[in-house]
Amino acid sequence: MLQDTKSLWASCQKYISENVTPEDYDRLFSHVSLQTFKVATKTLVLQVPSSYICEEIENKYLDVMRVAIFNTFGKIRLDWSILLVEEQPGKGKGLIVEGNDETLAPDGSITAAKQNLKVAPGTAATNNLPPIDSQLNPSQTFRTFIEGNSNKLSRSVGLSIAEHPQSTQFNPMFIFGPSGCGKTHLVNAIGNHCRKMYPQKRVLYVSARIFQVQYSNAVMQKQINDFIAFYQTIDMLIVDDVQEWISAKGTQDTFFHIFNHLFRNNRRIILISDRAPVELEGMNKRLLTRFSCGLMAEMEKPNLQLCIDILKKKILRDGLKVPDDVVHYIAEKANGSVRDLEGVINSLMAYSVVYNCNIDMRLVERVVQRAVKTEDNTPLTVDEILDRVCRHYEVTPNSVKGRSRKREFLLPRQLTMFLAKKYTNIPASRIGRMIGGRDHSTVLHSIDLIEKRLKTDKEFAAEVAKIEDALKVKKEQ
Question: CA nearest 451: which of 434, 430, 383, 443?
Fold first, then answer.
């Protein structure tokens, strides 16, 4: 009977291999093995190394599995059994049955009956797994995080999450805002506070870039299942700079499955980006819907008073003596960047120690000039670019933002979009909204047209160069 079952499963495998790509067969189905076939209950149990494999097969090849199994085994019930990759000392590998029971009807259709997570006897629970390095910065805590109007909501919710990680409210938490507003400090504070209150929790902070590198290494070493299984054991996962995943399809798809597993099991997910989910062009839509299903908390650059408060706190921490007028000067020049404030204080401390000198205005001016983007070298804005282009072509900004398709307005409009994308960090969707409420596809089309013309029209290229010179922008080499 066992031999007959193996033959039937071999027939299934043959059918599947003929109806999926060789890459996907090697990536997915080569890891699927026959565990048991219970004749009495007509239940086929297939074993996979992780829920990722199961979910990928269900998402991409459900019809293929349905036909293959129904044609060989007939009307049966399919159970997935998922092998936990983490090994426990002296216990071997535990078996997790993840409620993905599937019934094959006579017509070949599959109906899924979702159940609660069941852990087989002898399987280690998450809190019995080996400890991990959280990768958190121990110096970034709520005690050192200064609250202001620009971060009050994010800080309040973050503290609540750290104190009640088991709550499903505000999950996931998506924090976004410009660089230097304190996002990274806040999420480290959340993680550190949670670990302090719940030492058994597996908390992990990881940058999107590191996650992507880990994923690539796992793929090359054929250890993707181990990689996913590890992240599925995390109780609080904090991912910084998720905007770096734009266009990284493989990374996005893998994180989608990790996200689903953590979310289903009420684990905490905290995501950080420099822009809102709606502006993450190139990100998978199904992933964006999950980013947006919890709390989206925007953090703004700190105002002058908050910058002063942050400076005074850092000065007190480092034992420096800085006159009040110098503190105000630094705060005014920092352009609301907490990182710039930190850099200035660190530089002042170094000068003070190495040269044994007092911190006065003259020294601060030198340090600020080298460490901070002041008004003389701040990035261009879309409005400044629009104004300069309009002056060159002798048209008004309102006419460029309008709906007219006349060439006298269309060219300045397209060029403004091109220069805005080239010289600002603003995404195409926001540029389009700022120039007459247009969508990102219009912006990308305009950019493409301008780039092509620059390559073939020397007179036009010279015109654009004059506009760039007028904007006092250092052109790309």
Answer: 443
